[in-house]
């Protein structure tokens, strides 16, 4: 790679100097950091990073290359990538292209040679902030002004959700997966359990789901503020009374909102692969993979029919919920993560058991409420 200068400029005026790789363009977005040591391909292709410039805290990124099997979506939607060192000669039998080549293909710019430790500490102290990747800082005042004028989008889920339904066939329980920006591994985990999965758009109505007569509803992860998806909240108010529901990440937040809870934007969020979570029901700690910038307010749960089931060890935030009456539950983290801890994978089996119970009730002629 050529030693072409590139700069990361933050909204507070701080400038980080480095070198360009990936696509050759200037971009603006929210600057966040991810602490995982592996899984950079899955991170880059995770739709939950839509509109964001992702800083990798691990010092060497790209060392095992990129391959066609580990993408979480076909077209990554993040804005940019920030690394300390980028590997130009990856070594892995599955490698098909370098990180630099992949980012060029996806038209995503990157910067390397950045003091990512300093950048991460700045974000932790000040909170996530807007920034830009640019190739020149001659007019730095104009760049900072433009960064601060940039508004956070409110249509991120619409950008990444499927536009029409499609099926991933199985012979088991019929699952409707509402796509708010799903990771492909959610589908893989359901297919592993022989589920017949129908992926549907984020704005599907409750009536349309009822007509499909599924055995269960999966609510996917996705980007942005959950309050920007009001149509999904209204749909969930109806659906949770009729079918088993399992929500992940953004799906968890929407489940909470549908039941009268509230959410808030976190200072710098949880983004990494080793976050400890307490399972309140078993009193055991599970390691989890996480990627979210919003959280459910615990105080807001008091007047709802929701019970907190999981709690973050590091900052005491809400990590899991279940409904007192319905076969509906959710978690803030990613039980489908790969690579990542396998501790929470049992949640998919719990969903299967809920669908089994629901189907047996239907066969027995008893209406499930």
From TrEMBL:
SMART domains: CPSase_sm_chain. The gene is carA. Residues 4-134 form the Carbamoyl-phosphate synthase small subunit N-terminal domain. It catalyses: hydrogencarbonate + L-glutamine + 2 ATP + H2O = carbamoyl phosphate + L-glutamate + 2 ADP + phosphate + 2 H(+); L-glutamine + H2O = L-glutamate + NH4(+). The active site is at 249 (nucleophile), 334, 336. L-glutamine binds at residues 48, 222, 224, 250, 253, 291, 293-294. PANTHER family: CARBAMOYL-PHOSPHATE SYNTHASE SMALL CHAIN, MULTIFUNCTIONAL TRYPTOPHAN BIOSYNTHESIS PROTEIN-RELATED. GO terms for molecular function: ATP binding; carbamoyl-phosphate synthase (glutamine-hydrolyzing) activity; glutaminase activity. Small subunit of the glutamine-dependent carbamoyl phosphate synthetase (CPSase). CPSase catalyzes the formation of carbamoyl phosphate from the ammonia moiety of glutamine, carbonate, and phosphate donated by ATP, constituting the first step of 2 biosynthetic pathways, one leading to arginine and/or urea and the other to pyrimidine nucleotides. The small subunit (glutamine amidotransferase) binds and cleaves glutamine to supply the large subunit with the substrate ammonia. Belongs to the CarA family. HAMAP family: CPSase_S_chain. Keywords: Amino-acid biosynthesis, Arginine biosynthesis, ATP-binding, Glutamine amidotransferase, Ligase, Nucleotide-binding, Pyrimidine biosynthesis. GO terms for biological process: 'de novo' pyrimidine nucleobase biosynthetic process; 'de novo' UMP biosynthetic process; glutamine metabolic process; L-arginine biosynthetic process. Composed of two chains; the small (or glutamine) chain promotes the hydrolysis of glutamine to ammonia, which is used by the large (or ammonia) chain to synthesize carbamoyl phosphate. Tetramer of heterodimers (alpha,beta)4. Its EC number is 6.3.5.5. NCBIfam families: CPSaseIIsmall, PRK12838.1. This is Carbamoyl phosphate synthase small chain. Pathway: Amino-acid biosynthesis; L-arginine biosynthesis; carbamoyl phosphate from bicarbonate: step 1/1; Pyrimidine metabolism; UMP biosynthesis via de novo pathway; (S)-dihydroorotate from bicarbonate: step 1/3. Residues 1-173 are annotated as: CPSase. SUPFAM superfamilies: Carbamoyl phosphate synthetase, small subunit N-terminal domain, Class I glutamine amidotransferase-like.
